[in-house]
């Protein structure tokens, strides 16, 4: 089964502070997107990769990723629209589709392989997860605590998320409204979403502090 990867990278990333699109912010001298694609290409099972970039930056991203054998298309205003644009450009022979956030730029190749293997084994949808270490409170509109959520039942979801292609296509065709990830769209169809173990280094670069953590991870890898 051929494995294709979609990389939605058209977001602005306001929480990371002033600057260009988040995927083009630099980490150790290279854009986050380059780090992300390098990690994907290190996974033996990965075939075609399609990146959805900001429409105005498509030529720049094509040049940036010329050495990595990826297709670059214009993304949409929302993440789901960018995924749909990339999915439409994915070669038809990719039976397994992974969706990976460029902001999770240090996700190791072993994690990519783990997700792909689970879909190949028959799961319609797979997400990598990690335990939630903090106590979590549900609050009301005024900020008052409603209850403490049992964290033993909670998991934080990472990417890449993996799907049988027909399942992902159906989710984007039939689901309406906002969704924080593609797995939520599959859940809305009533289909099972399976989990595999995530990885500490697959964290999302969202805030300036995350860039410092990513720098430390890279330094550790070099060491």
3D architecture notes:
This protein has 223 residues and is α/β, with parallel strands linked by helices. Helix content is 32%, strand content 25%. The chain has seven helices and twelve strands. The strands form three sheets. Strands 1, 4, 5, 6, 7, 10, 11 and 12 form an eight-stranded mixed beta sheet that branches. Helix 2 links the parallel strand 4 and strand 5. Helix 5 crosses helix 6 (182-188). The longest helix is centred in the C-terminal third of the chain and has 15 residues, at 208-222.
**Rg value:** 17 Å
Into which percentage range does the β-strand content fall? 25-35%
Uncertain spans: none
Query: Based on CA inertia axes, which overall geometry fits?
Result: globular
How many helical elements? 7
Major sheet characteristics: 8 strands, mixed
Span of the ends, CA to CA: 36 Å
Fourth CATH level, the homologous superfamily: Spore Coat Polysaccharide Biosynthesis Protein SpsA, Chain A
User: Which structural class matches the secondary elements?
Assistant: alpha/beta
CATH class: Alpha Beta
Q: Write the CATH architecture name.
A: Alpha-Beta Complex
Strand segment count: 12
Question: Average pLDDT, to the nearest integer?
Answer: 94
Q: What is the H/E order?
A: EEEHEHEHEHEEEEEHHEH
CATH topology: Spore Coat Polysaccharide Biosynthesis Protein SpsA, Chain A
How many structurally independent domains? 1
Assign a percent range to the helix content: 25-40%
């Amino acid at each position: 089964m051929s494995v294709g990867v979609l990389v939605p990278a058209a977001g602005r990333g306001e929480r990371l502070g002033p600057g260009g699109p988040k995927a083009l912010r630099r980490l150790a001298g290279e854009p986050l997107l380059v780090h992300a694609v390098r990690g994907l290409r290190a996974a033996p099972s990965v075939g075609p990769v399609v990146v959805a970039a900001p429409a105005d930056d498509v030529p720049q991203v094509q040049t940036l990723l010329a050495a990595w054998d990826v297709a670059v298309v214009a993304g949409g205003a929302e993440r789901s629209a960018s995924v749909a644009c990339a999915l439409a450009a994915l070669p038809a022979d990719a039976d397994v589709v992974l969706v990976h956030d460029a902001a999770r730029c240090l996700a190791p190749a072993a994690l990519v392989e783990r997700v792909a293997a689970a879909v190949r084994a028959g799961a319609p949808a797979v997400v990598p997860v990690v335990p939630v270490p903090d106590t979590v409170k549900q609050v009301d509109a005024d900020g008052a605590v409603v209850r403490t959520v049992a964290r033993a039942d909670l998991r934080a979801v990472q990417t890449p998320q993996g799907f049988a292609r027909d399942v992902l296509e159906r989710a984007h065709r039939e689901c309406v409204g906002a969704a924080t990830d593609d797995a939520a769209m599959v859940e809305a169809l009533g289909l099972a979403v399976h989990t595999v173990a995530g990885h500490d280094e697959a964290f999302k670069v969202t805030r300036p502090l995350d860039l410092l953590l990513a720098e430390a991870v890279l330094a550790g890898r070099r060491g």
